[in-house]
Amino acid sequence: MECDVRHIQEILRDNSRILAITGAGISRASGLPVMSSEFYGIRLEHLFSLEHAKCHRDEFERYYRKMTTEFLHAKPNAAHCTLARYGIHVITQNIDGLDRRAGNKNVIELHGNLHAVRCRTCGYRLPVFQISDNMWRCTRCHGALWPDVVLEGEAVHDLGKAACLVSTCSAALVVGTRLEMSPLVKLMAVLKDHHVPIFQINEHAEHLLPTLFSLRDKEKRVRLV
User: Fold this and answer.
1) 70-81: per-residue pLDDT in tens?
2) For a tag on the chain, would you pick the N or C end, based on fewer CB atoms within 10 A?
3) Signal peptide: which range, if any (predicted)?
4) Total count of domains within the chain
């Protein structure tokens, strides 16, 4: 059903344990693509498949570097900044790092972060700009370095922490994602089992989130799941 912004503002005002679950839609206003989009002629969902990354390592690294360069030019929009300003805990599917760049220290990045690499042997993690184009080897153990992102077919990061947040929150905002991918479907089921009010924002989060948290009464509406 739908409820007006004032009602949602009151719910958010009266609940201290607010959780935001975010997807690619929250970063549209920052100029970033969604996974179904193409990037230099290749679909992102294909680029980030484990099979493709292993079979076409050189191509994967080349596109990955292009993407990190372009994503570094993107800036957090008003939606990211609002969540950061109010200290909202975020569980995100995004790999763009914009929540952290907005200053939010309460972020779980289920799919990792595009701007870091990790050694597959010892687990050493470092910023991508610290490695050269032709040296994808760990400086500690000489193991292979890979982007610290979850590829299709791999387990997500910090699922236990995410489940803990979901089980203890008192209100939830779902922003820029239709929650079609596991494990978000299971996390949503937990929210509903606990009768947590869930507000879904699919578009214009950069306008709606500042409104919801500023207590300014507008006529815009969001869907209550």
Assistant:
1) 888 999 999 999
2) N
3) none
4) 1
